Amino acid sequence: MTEPSTSPVLDPLSDQIMIRMEAVHKWYGAFHVLKDINLTVRKGERIVICGPSGSGKSTTIRCVNRLEEYQRGRIVVDGQELSNDVKQIERIRREVGMVFQHFNLFPHLTVLENCTLGPIWVRKLPRRQAEEIAMRYLERVRIPEQANKYPGQLSGGQQQRVAIARSLCMNPKIMLFDEPTSALDPEMIKEVLDTMVALAEDGMTMICVTHEMGFAKTVAHRVIFMDSGEIIEEKPPEEFFTHPESERTKLFLSQILHH
Amino acid sequence: MAESRVPHASLPPPASTIGVVGWLRRNLFSSPLNIVLTLLAVYLLFVTLPPLLRWAFLDASWRGDDREACRSGGACWVFIRVHFEQFMYGFYPDGQRWRVNAAVLLLILGAAPLFMRAVSSKFKIRLGLGLLIGYPFVAFALLKGGMIGLPVVDTSQWGGLLLTLVIAGVGMTAALPLGVLLALGRRSRMPAIQTLCVTFIEFWRGVPLITVLFMSSVMLPLFLPVGMNFDKLLRALIGVTLFQGAYMAEVVRGGLQAIPKGQFEAAAALGLGYWKTMGLIVLPQALKLVIPGIVNTFIALFKDTSLVLIIGLFDLMNIVHNATTNPAWLGFSTEGYVFAALVYWLFCFGMSRYSQNLEKHLHTGHKR
Predict the structure, then answer these.
(1) Which domain holds residue B88?
(2) Alpha carbon of B158 to those of B106, B139, B164, B235: distances in Å?
(3) Average of pLDDT values for A46-64?
(4) For the CA atoms of A187, A191, A192, A195, what is the dihedral angle to 10 degrees?
(5) Contact flag B364-A103 (C-beta cutoff 8 Å)
């Protein structure tokens, strides 16, 4: 387990609600993947979702920017309810950044072009301004010198930091992280986690699906434990790790922490 | 790991594994079977090459103006020389052939910057699109005439390599975009569009090109109102384009299927819509992946143009064939067909080399 180097101060949360999921259900064919998910995330709040594989963690956050459809319930993001209206979905996606397990950088574009694509084609910014923004965020993830390389020439950790910068260039109100360190070599996990901690210190609203419990302890306001499509437990990290309620959570924690 | 360790220095490889000797050993004499095969190949070359060279070069007749000059027993290249203009321009009137040359020159000059490294890619895209849209009109005006004081040259007089290039050029530039649209349509989530595209592709892939051409010239007029008649060349162009578009669609679809789902998701997460996702993310990668398949289809298209002889167009193949039946030049069909084959091969090989070069140039490291 990698411990992030710094421990940010948990600042008081605003009352503004950024994400509200109400009784969300989802089926893959006959398989009930999400069962009655209720979740409210306030502005500046940082949530860590953990749980065994196949528990619906990724599916939950992928519903927030509508990469997955859901069949019942409602989700309101930044005051707009998700619907089947394509334009509406695109509008919401502009405000919600997402970082994937496998980075999903565009291999035919340079690092800089990866970062300017969204601002130029979605935000309609002039190229020069988009490049300034991109360089600013590449500096923040500490790889400005790689701007003109292609993703295939970078290490996994560097690629994931570019992916984070790419999302930030859209100036999102919410960041979703879908197991951002699971595909990385141990040596590279820290550089990505440090970037995420720095982002947390700036007050970004974040939902992270991760198994990095050190990160959860220092950064999260709340830790959510999911199993077989349900939210089992939802607590501030200090309580979650010391006094888990359900047996399922205790078992999971004992397995993940004593390794 | 406490004490620092000096890595072992790299040594040069053994002399027998590098250079000409190494290459020969590795590729020609690596095993008893390979030694036998190598010797066999050398023997075959020894038997076949000298007579071929004798026929094509040593005993060949190069000078003269009629068949009387060809008594040496070798190839009669006089036949090609005498008919060369005809093979290039068909029945395009003598005094007007400069217009064909001008059109070709214009294309070469216009397209030259596309092949230069120093030119910015933004300019290349603009120039390429400009050429794609503008050049056909300019070339058509030049070749057909009827305006700015140029006398009309009917398309039935176009022929030879000119006609082959016109059909191949139009076919390629129209079939690729058509194929891309059909491939996207076939993967569309809208059932109506999907069904339409699948039906279209499967219909055109299911019939031979020769049937398509035959139907377009023999059957189509039966369905058209009396007196309405459109150009034979135009019908061939439409037939070739639709036919090759269907093939191209399947090639492009192969590329689309190879793009990982994560690319679509990353594009969606940025808020890109369907057309931007396809145009900026998916197609640039998919088309690059299927360059070999696209060029394969282009090469097939180029050679398939020779089928237009079935509807009485005199492309390179047909005009060569026509010349061999000329009573004054009977008996030189071998020379004619060798020449035609050489011209086809030059163009196809050129396309193949260019595509390899393009692939290398567009390679940006491994995937993901």
Answers:
(1) 77-92+153-362
(2) 18, 13, 10, 15
(3) 94
(4) 170
(5) no
Q: A61-95 burial string, b = 16+ CB within 10 Å, else e?
A: bbbbbbbbebeebebbbbeeebeeeeeebbebbbb
* Chain segment B159-182, per-residue pLDDT in tens: 999 999 999 999 999 999 999 999
How buried is A241 (Cβ within 10 angstroms: 0-12 exposed, 13-18 middle, 19+ buried)?
middle
Residue B169 belongs to a domain = yes
The rounded distance, in Å, linking the Cα atoms of A48 and A210 is: 7
Beta carbons of B365 and A105 less than 8 Å apart: no
User: For residues A202 and A191, what is the distance between their CA atoms, to the nearest angstrom?
Assistant: 17
B288 found inside a domain: yes
Residue B51 lies in a domain: no
Residue A6 pLDDT: 42
SS3 A26: strand
The residues on A that touch B, with CB distances below 8 Å, are: 65, 67, 86, 90-91, 93-94, 96-98, 100, 102-108, 117-118, 121-122, 150-153, 159, 166-167, 170
**Distant-in-sequence, close-in-space partners of A168: CB < 8 Å, separation ≥ 6:** A97, A137, A140, A175, A199
CA B44 remoteness from chain centre = 32
**pLDDT bracket for residue B228 (50, 70, 90):** low
Number of folded domains in chain B?
A: 1
Mind telling me how many Å the CA of A142 is from chain B's nearest CA?
21
Q: Which helix (H) or strand (E) holds A98?
A: strand A96-99
The verdict on residue B339 lying in a domain is: yes
Quote the DSSP letter at residue B282: I
Q: Which residues fall within 8 angstroms of residue A35, CB to CB, at 6 or more apart?
A: A25, A228, A229, A230
E strands present in A164-221: 174-178, 205-209
Give the residue from A215, A149, A153, A206 showing the smallest Cα distance to A182. Answer: A215
A177 neighbourhood in chain B, CB within 8 Å: none
Q: How many other β-carbons are positioned within 10 Å of the β-carbon of residue B365?
A: 13
CATH of the domain at B159: 1.10.3720.10
